[in-house]
């Protein structure tokens, strides 16, 4: 594979969109021979990030457009999510305490913790009214 | 996601397949709660056909584990791929769940504690 490949998906901030997005990203990555282990890590992160946007980005009950872009090169897979929700930088959130026992364990913050750990790079920028989050997985 | 319930040597084994993600979480939770409400407090959850599990799926497991704990129950997990195991390790869930190689070992472990 020598060329750069691109996937662009527009979707609304609704939970019903998640399966469609997952399928599209999966097919795209599979078609470009990305290893399953990397596909699964990326799909996990997409699920976490989309879920967060749907749950927290908006305080109104309106429909909002979210943009997902996936860019492939020989060395890495980059995924960018762009939403116009409230400012939220996942890279600066407090990480959960993963040492707690069952009784004390909670699920808050775990999704972002997984993204930050599974991906090689997680970059956030606020561009005007938009949260722009870019996650990168390096291909061996 | 698909979810199947079986009995092996009298013990409940729940087999999962596909993506245990935010879309699957509702059905996953309903199924585990339904089993627990029947009075089943010890069960094996088989991850053999699981593609991946996200925090939504982990949340369901945590909920179920907390629900059976007061009855002295537990969830035994098995047949995880390397990637799925990694997610359990990262999230600290490897230390709050008993994880076995396969269903046979998990069922044997239940018999030993009975």
Sequence-ordered SSE layout with sheet pairings:
The complex is a heterodimer of chains A (140) and B (114).
Chain A: E1 5-12, H1 18-31, H2 36-56, E2 65-72, E3 76-83, H3 110-118, E4 121-127, E5 130-138
Chain B: E1 2-8, E2 11-20, H1 22-37, E3 42-53, H2 55-68, E4 74-78, H3 82-91, E5 98-100, H4 103-113
Parallel strand pairs in B: 2-3, 3-4, 4-5
Antiparallel strand pairs in B: 1-2
Give an overview in words:
The complex is a heterodimer of chains A (140) and B (114). Chain A is of the alpha+beta class and 140 residues long. Chain A has one domain: 2-Layer Sandwich (Heat Shock Protein 90). Chain A is built from 3 helices and 5 strands; from the N terminus they run βααββαββ. In chain A, β4 (121-127) and β5 form a beta hairpin. The longest helix of chain A is centred in the N-terminal third of the chain and has 21 residues, at 36-56. Chain A is globular and about 40 Å long. With 114 residues, chain B is of the alpha/beta class. Chain B has helices spanning 22-37, 55-68, 82-91, 103-113, and strands spanning 2-8, 11-20, 42-53, 74-78, 98-100. Chain B has a 5-stranded mixed β-sheet, sandwiched between helices. In chain B, a hairpin with a 2-residue loop joins β1 and β2 (11-20). The longest helix of chain B is centred in the N-terminal third of the chain and has 16 residues, at 22-37. The model of chain B has no long low-confidence stretch (mean pLDDT 97).
Distance between the amino and carboxyl termini of chain B:
32 Å
- CA radius of gyration of chain A: 15 Å
The geometry of chain B reads as globular
From the helix content, strand content and strand pairing of chain A, which structural class follows?
alpha+beta
| Strand elements of chain A, count | 5
Point out poorly predicted stretches of chain A: none
Number of helices of chain B: 4
Beta fraction of the residues of chain A? 25-35%
String of helices and strands of chain B: EEHEHEHEH
Mean pLDDT of chain A comes to 92
Order of helices and strands of chain A: EHHEEHEE
The CATH superfamily of chain B bears the name STAS domain
The helix/strand class of chain B is alpha/beta
CATH homology group of chain A: Histidine kinase-like ATPase, C-terminal domain
Main sheet of chain B, how many strands, which sense, barrel? 5 strands, mixed
What distance separates the N and C termini of chain A? Answer: 14 Å
Specify the biggest β-sheet of chain A.
Answer: 5 strands, antiparallel
CATH class designation of chain B: Alpha Beta
Can you list the strand order of the major beta sheet of chain A? 1-2-3-5-4
Strand order in the largest sheet of chain B: 1-2-3-4-5
């Amino acid at each position: 594979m020598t060329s750069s490949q691109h996937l662009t998906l527009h979707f609304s901030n609704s939970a019903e969109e998640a399966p469609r997005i997952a399928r599209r990203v999966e097919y795209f990555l599979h078609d470009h021979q990305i290893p399953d282990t990397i596909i699964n890590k990326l799909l996990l992160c997409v699920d976490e990030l989309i879920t967060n946007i749907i749950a927290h980005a908006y305080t109104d009950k309106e429909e909002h457009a979210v943009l997902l872009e996936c860019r492939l090169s020989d060395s890495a897979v980059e995924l960018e999510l762009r939403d116009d929700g409230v400012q939220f930088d996942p890279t600066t959130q407090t990480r959960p305490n993963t040492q707690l026992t069952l009784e004390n364990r909670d699920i808050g913050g775990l999704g972002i913790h997984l993204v930050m750990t599974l991906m090689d790079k997680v970059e956030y920028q606020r561009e005007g009214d938009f949260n722009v989050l870019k996650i990168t997985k390096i291909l061996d | 996601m698909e979810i199947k319930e079986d009995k092996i040597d009298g013990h409940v084994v729940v087999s999962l397949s596909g993506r245990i993600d935010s879309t699957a979480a509702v059905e996953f939770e309903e199924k585990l709660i339904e089993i627990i409400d029947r009075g089943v407090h010890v069960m094996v959850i088989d991850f053999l056909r699981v593609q991946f599990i996200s925090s939504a799926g982990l949340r369901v497991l945590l909920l179920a584990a907390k629900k059976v704990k007061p009855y002295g129950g537990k969830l035994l997990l098995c047949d995880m791929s390397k990637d799925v195991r990694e997610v359990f390790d990262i999230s600290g869930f490897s230390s709050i769940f008993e994880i076995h190689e396969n269903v046979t070992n998990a069922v044997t472990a239940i018999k030993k504690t009975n």
